[in-house]
Design a protein that fits this description.
By secondary structure, the chain is α/β, with parallel strands linked by helices. It folds into three domains: 2-125, Orthogonal Bundle (N-utilizing Substance Protein B Homolog, Chain A), CATH 1.10.940; 168-215, no CATH class; 220-416, Vaccinia Virus protein VP39 (Rossmann fold), CATH 3.40.50.150. It is 45% helix and 14% strand. It is globular, with a radius of gyration of 23 Å.
Length: 417
């Protein structure tokens, strides 16, 4: 799974879902351990690798990435998993390297890992901060403060542990709460959210195939709520993706509203249609549109336009630590410019006086307030159209893991002049 992330640019969550879904013999405890190791290595890689290189000045096995992955997995267990005996972590890694690369390389790994058992262990908080790019930590602190920046990268109130996103779901339609969900914690922001904790693969429950629930971060549910959609409105979901938020829009519109969904790729629109069929919802009007090109053949009189724009994803770092390995400051600038262009183009399709909800799963000012300022000639901030203590008397809001227990989101309520 780590190789898939590092060498094939896979998302960690997708790699975990694929492998764990195929590994039916693993116990729930094993699955939890695998998940912790994969996410833990991704969050602490720079620190782990720097420590390994202290005792391997000539490099690690000639740059052999497979060997490095075995060493990182073992080092993470040695440093941060007290319940895994040191000898077990070392022996397992050495045995695997021996089988794959032979005795000489295995001997090198054995000596290296045994030296690690004698060094002072870093704290998990130090290791995560070491791995996060300096520029990104500076921008996070500038945007949300040091405490919330730590929460975003997985350091909670207890600096000896990693905080992770809690799996959430919402029930669809008028269905009874299944027994396995009865002990779940209800959402703090969105009343229809259920925080299910370590419930395993939620898609294996029969209620999923029957279309009774959607797996979705509570923050994303709250975003859909903040759009203020009610029956009878004409709504454009301008960056619909695979349609999880779109399905909540459709539920709220009922039989008397009109929903249009747009994405750049037809593949995602096909996946959205499949999701709507699973949930028993009527299919919306769907169009494949590249907002960066001209000539969009769409109505121009929508009551509400929701723009969930492409962004750096810095609000999702707890769930997607691979972002720490890939994101650059230039990426943020490029994505901010792209989001600005998409927002401006999509806003042309809201009626005069209509509302636009701008959303990104980033918390960086460059992708949030700066974009609202950049389109101020066309769109003005206005109060949210729903009554909620987090939204009242505001036109712009950040959701943060350390404050709201959700992914990080930025929401701006705008009105076309």
């Amino acid at each position: 799974m780590l190789e898939a992330v590092y060498r094939r640019q896979a998302f960690a969550a997708a790699a975990l879902d694929a492998e764990l879904g195929a590994s039916v013999e693993l116990t729930p405890a094993d699955r939890a351990l695998v998940t912790e190791i994969v996410y833990g290595v991704l969050r602490t890689r720079a620190s782990l690798e720097a420590t390994l290189l202290q005792f391997a000045s000539r490099g690690i096995a000639g740059g052999d990435q497979r060997v490095l992955m075995h060493l990182l997995v073992a080092a993470y267990q040695l440093f941060f998993l007290d319940r895994v005996p040191a000898f077990a972590a070392v022996d397992e890694a050495v045995s695997l390297v021996s089988a794959e690369r032979g005795g000489r390389v295995a001997g090198f790994c054995n000596a290296l890992l045994r030296r690690l058992t004698k060094v002072d262990k870093p704290s998990i908080a130090e290791a995560i901060r070491h791995t996060a790019p300096t520029w990104l930590m500076e921008d996070l602190v500038d945007s949300v403060g040091a405490v919330q920046a730590d929460h975003l990268i997985g350091i909670g109130d207890d600096p000896t542990t990693i905080t992770t996103a809690v799996p959430c779901l919402r029930l669809v339609g008028d269905v009874a709460v299944p027994p396995w969900l009865s002990a779940a914690t209800r959402g703090a922001l969105y009343e229809g959210a259920y925080r299910v904790g370590n419930a395993g693969n939620l898609r294996r429950h029969p209620e999923y195939s029957e279309g009774h629930f959607v797996i979705q971060d509570e923050g994303a549910m709250f975003v859909a709520h903040a759009a203020g959609i009610v029956p009878g409105l004409r709504v454009l979901d301008a960056c619909s993706g695979r349609g999880q938020k779109s399905s909540l829009f459709a539920e709220r519109l009922g039989q008397t509203g009109e929903l249009w969904v747009v994405d750049k790729t037809q593949k995602k629109l096909d996946q959205l249609a499949g999701e709507f069929r699973r949930l028993g919802l009527p299919l919306p009007q769907a169009r494949a549109v590249d907002w960066t090109a001209g000539g969009h053949e769409l109505p121009g009189d929508f009551d509400v336009v929701v723009v969930d724009a492409p962004c750096s994803g810095t609000g999702t770092l707890r769930r997607r630590p691979e972002i720490l390995l890939r994101l650059t400051r230039d990426d943020v600038s490029r994505l901010a410019a792209l989001s600005t262009g998409i927002l401006r183009a999509a806003a042309q399709h809201v009626r005069p006086g209509g509302r636009v909800l701008f959303v990104v799963c980033s918390v960086l000012r460059q992708e949030c307030e700066a974009i609202v300022t950049a389109v101020s000639d066309l769109l003005q901030p206005t109060g949210f159209a729903v009554d909620h203590e987090v939204l009242n008397s505001k036109s712009m809001v950040r959701l943060l893991p350390g404050e709201h227990g959700t992914d990080g989101f930025f929401l701006a309520s705008l009105r076309r002049a």
